Amino acid sequence: MGFDLRRTGFLIQRSIHLAIARPSTEDLRWEISRSRTLFFAQSTDQTGTVDKPEPPPEDPSSGSTTTTGGSCGSVKRSLTTQFEGFDLNQQSSQSSSRRDSNGEPTPAEMAAKTCRDNLRLEFEGFSTKLRGRNGLNGFRPRPPPEPVNHEGDGVGPGGCEDRPIDPDDVRRLMGAVSFGYGVFQLSISLLPPSLLKLISFLGFEGDRAMGVACLMHSRISSDMRAPLSTLGLLWYYTIVTPFFALDGSNLHHEICSAQELIDESNDQFAKSSLFLFFRGRVERLKSNIKEAIQAYEVAYRSSAQREIKLLCLHEIGWCRLIQLDYGKAMKNFKELRRCSLFSKSFYAYLTVICQGAHGYFDELVRWRTEITELLSRSTQKESQIEKYIARRCSKIPRAETEQEKFDPLYWRLLVYEMLFMWNALNSCHEATLQAIVQDCGKPPEELNEPSIGLGRLILGAALVCLKRYEEAIRAFRDCIEARTDEGVELQQDVHISAFAHYELAMLLLRKEDDDEDEGEAREEAKRLLVYAQLNYKSFDFDNRINVRIHSVLRKLN
After folding, report:
1. Which region ranges are annotated with the description Disordered (predicted)?
2. Which numeric CATH code is attached to 421-556?
3. Which residue in 29, 317, 429, 503 is a FRET match for 299, CA 20 to 30 A apart?
4. Separation CA 468–CA 454 (nearest Å)
């Protein structure tokens, strides 16, 4: 009787709700009005009837009514709040009499005061939250950082112990950063010139020497990426550089660097299938084809991963093709066509040219139909290999009546073209190169060429490998002349003209005559490179030749 616990509980529940949820303006107005009224006790008579409060005298100078009495002083009644069930005069007099008699406030007054204090604290906390939410960009402003005391007892901010950084951690971190930066630099440097312009516009520039230096630093660090750095360097020296011919046909530095890396890792990774694979690549670049096949076979048997087995089988097939062993190469490529998920049309084409060069013509027409179906079902029609096979598919006989395509020399020229396009002529033995020169050096009327000028292009490349440079220059000039019909250059098989211009330019730059002739050769080589870069587009492996031309012109400039 004197204190309504139900209303007090309702007020506490309402204030908790305001502390959690974002209040509206009506909610705040309601709470303020309630905070002035609901903490007064409700008095009833002994019969349970509520005393009706008498209207207090109005103050003409204000817009509200006042009630005075006891120790409460004056209380202004809100015009928006109805004080139903409260006798303020009686309550104030009772409170005065009790406080006068006992000298202490009643429990109801203490509870009301506590509720008012709690509500005030809730409002202050909520206003602080609102100020934090309404800060800059809707984020709470961060407190100022604590000052760092470096001369204390070794305890940093937040109670954490301030200890020096271990130098081994720094070295390990630098090894990891060098690995990522080195791979990034090498990858950027291998992009075609059209993309290099965009990359340089964004602020990146591929530095091949910096990439190799970073990987060299990472491989000698204690970071877990050190073996990956070694594999990355082996990949660059044995696959990327020969494939793109970044340094021409001179791969002595790459071969020595790769061999040194393998020798240093021999104790730790002697039985690793990946390192055995790269050992085979080094032996192949040295023209030690038998040793390369042995390394690939050991890696094939020791590996438990299907992908590495197929990779080794791919290299074994190419080694057989470099040896011009068409029968064994045909079996390997046929197995790859059946098992591999990568470009089945590519392995089908390798199989058919090996069959034709081997003198086995029974299934040539069937192979053309199968390659056409594989190309139509392929999901990589825009890749360079798929485009290359699609253009070569027209070289395969459509019917048995095309007698000119049933000549072993016709198919051997296609095999030589594959060796040239994949930069595998450098790995051939001298006897193999002599056989290629003998086939391609025949008179044009006796040479059954799949494409005009192909024989002279292969002849020049083989003579370069035999270091017969003057004869190679004449062969490339004959190729460019054969590709021109009455002053108009042929538009079919444009890759032959592009590669002939590039190879001739590289030979002219290699000449070591007197200064005047050397200057003339340099200008002619630069003119050939610029002509090939500007006039030949959308041919077989155009990105590869463009990367080479861009690299050479960058050195010349």
Report:
1. 41-114, 132-165
2. 1.25.40
3. 429
4. 19
